[in-house]
Amino acid sequence: MANVKREAFMLPAVLVKGNIIFPKTVVSIEINDINSLKAVKYAMETKKRILVVTQLDPSAIHSTGDISTANLCECGVVAEIKQCAVFGGTAQIIVSTLHKAELIKYIFNYPVTAFIVKRRKAPRVKTDTLKMKALIRCAQDACIAFTTIFPRVPIGYAESIRTKNDPYELLVYISDFCVTRMEDKKKLFDIDDIAEQLRTLIDILQEEMEILGLEREVLSKTRDSIESHNREAFLREQLKVIKQELSDGTGETEGEGYESYPRRIERIENLEEQHKNLLLKESERLSEMHSASHEALIIQNYLDTVLELPWDNATKDEINLSDARKALDKDHHGLEDVKERILETLAVYKIKGSVKGQIICLAGPPGVGKTSIAQAIAGALGRNFQRISLGGVSDESEIRGHRRTYIGALPGRIINALKMAESRNPVILLDEIDKMGKSLHGDPGAALLEVLDSEQNAKFVDRYLNIPFDLSDVLFITTANTLQNISRPLYDRMEVIELTSYTREEKFAICKKHLIKKQLKKHGLTASRVKINDKVIYTLIDNYTKESGVRRLERHIASLCRKAAKKLADPNTQTISFTSKNLEEYIGVKKYKREDGSGKDEVGVVNGLAYTTVGGETMQIEVSVLKGTGKLELTGSLGDVMKESAKTAVSYVRNLAPSYGISSDFYKDSDIHIHVPEGATPKDGPSAGIALTVALISALSDIPVRHDVAMTGEVTLRGRVLAIGGLKEKTMAAYRAGIGNVIIPAGNRADLRDIDKTVTAGLNFITADSIKDVLDNSLVRL
User: Fold this and answer.
1) Active-site choice (501, 683, 730, 778)
2) What angle is formed at CA 424 by the lines to CA 420 and CA 429, rounded to 5 degrees?
3) Whether the model pTM is above 0.85
4) CA pair distance 548, 325, nearest whole angstrom
5) Does residue 730 have an active-site annotation?
6) Which pLDDT does position 2 carry in this prediction?
7) Are the CB atoms for 715 and 721 separated by under 8 Å?
8) At what angle do helices 167-178 and 294-308 cross, to 10 degrees?
């Protein structure tokens, strides 16, 4: 395999001037001559690989465009083009260098300037030997000593040297900044053995330190004798010469492309003077660097990011409550309590003239319009809108950003959203805040505490920027499906507005007024050619969807539109009508059967109510009593809390056994199997306590349970019924299922005011203080 790698091969050649490029680095190269430009274009069309060769004498080019090979390094670097930007007769490319290659033969214009080369293999060296470790430490010490007298040392450069423990990485890192003479870089490049390279590097640094020491000594002796005006002229001339030496041969000095940075920094008004000075220092460092150096690219990207932020740009709030109400009514059907709450918040904003300290959390099941409501709030305020998805985020650097010392460092999502919004006071939606995670990289939820705290976010510091940005004018809106997964400190910073599931009639109205029109327009159809009657909408709601929102319903409407488009593509078809009779032909058989409250009373079967992240659900609890030895079997993916509720119910039933004709030894001579269908779905929580108790008594006493009753509530060993949460969603589920009676804890009586009026009108609520109240209203007494 090694012999194959050393075989000769041909690559298009790109010439660089005034710089030696090492393997295993990522660099930016500016292309000016026509031959190299052709080579880059040829490489982009083929394998994107080029040969980078350093031209020792930039003037050694014939009038025909040919190259004097005597003035080229005898060895080049094979590189892969990662990015390429062409501007007229020039190009800027970013390449990843791979390995050295020896020049064998020069080929002119075949079809571009190229060389036949073969790979130059470096000897393998063990890097974990004591000798190598000593060389690394000596090189680090020499570099640190050099930086103490070198006049232009980047901030933190000396400290970062100690973190470079790989010998080759250390060599490139030091030579890129500390080795300035071309002949010295070439000497390092020509050596293949890393140990010898490090020894040579140490010698070069020692020689440079001696030269710099002598130079400082000479300048120190002569400085006092130079008159003031002569000294200034001398320094200016010296600076001019230095910039000319740093020129890449085009006649332009490196700093000229960056001259706009200081002016742009000075124009920022909402930035403290000390932070302006920090940016100006970075700009000054950049002007003194070679534009192709890695450090220069990092600083340039940093300054570009900082200056692109909307430090002084802000939109003016124009709140019109009547227009806001119209916008909410136009895009959202129902949700009257939510709309009223939002309008109240907007009214406070209008009177106060500020949104500082207000963090809104829209909590509710998927598909009920949380994101669109946030967009409506932004529209009502006249502000720009940006959405940040936090689902699955488990790294706090996503919020705070990465430090610039890391390769590929970027600012966090908050700063990036501000840059995209182009204003310092946008509305930022933090979506799915309940689905953030934790990992070894930190807790993003903890990082959000500073962002959402009005007392702290006025000086929010992103690690990448390392200077504070004022977030106090930003209106943050968060969304969540469930509040249980949000940490208490984060929850306390937000004003929660809960959105409930849509009723059947609300879904119908949303579909008819919004979804059908939206999908017809999206598919290029018109209502005159595609007809969807009301029965089809109700059928889709009842038999094809089982959700709190309308997302699946919209997908089914989109499916019908696609079917219609296919039919209407036939010139002989002018219109198409969907009816409840032909619906199955287009979208398949019905998936769900809508309960209408009809059925029969059964023994050991109870209608329970559950609250999930996607809304309320009805669940049947089944109990079967078999002859056995007193075993209790629990199936259906039940959680620990629900299992404890089942054990509590068994203990309480033992106390009630005589009252219902149940054998007092049932727990000894009978096996009890409790099952909750849909076994693949995990279930947990204490609110199934009364349902489990009723099912047990029914199964043991052979008394049927009313099929038109659903229940929810926690039971104690003394038979008391305790209050539960999620009543809105649970009662909505009972309403959707067509169950007419719902038993709830007496402690939840006050929560009935928050339930939708359509639901309260369609259900009969029975409050229970004890399990006796539940049994009296659920068991069928003959």
Assistant:
1) 730
2) 60
3) no
4) 24
5) yes
6) 40
7) yes
8) 70
Active-site hit among 645, 687, 701, 778: 687
Averaged confidence pLDDT in the chain? 82
* Bond from prior residue into 111 cis (ω within 30 degrees of 0): yes
pLDDT (mean) for 595-611: 78
Coarse DSSP helix, strand, coil percentages of the chain, rounded to the nearest 5 percent = 45, 20, 35
- Distance, CA of 569 to CA of 232 (rounded, Å): 82
Alpha helices in 94-227 (DSSP H): 130-149, 157-161, 167-178, 182-190, 194-223
What pLDDT band is residue 680 in, cutting at 50, 70 and 90? low
- Nearest Cα neighbor of 23 from 218, 234, 190 is 190
Q: How many CB atoms lie within 10 A of CB 112?
A: 20
Helix (H) or strand (E) holding 242: helix 228-245
Task: Return the H-helix or E-strand segment holding 31.
Answer: strand 26-31
**Adjacent-strand bridge partners of 479:** 362
pLDDT value of residue 509: 86
- Angle between the 336-352 and 370-381 helix axes, to the nearest 10 degrees? 30
pLDDT tens track for 361-409: 988 888 888 888 888 888 888 889 999 998 888 888 888 888 887 877 8
The C-alpha atoms of residue 666 and residue 626 are separated, in whole angstroms, by 10
Separation in Å, CA 544 to CA 106, 131, 511, 538: 71, 74, 14, 10
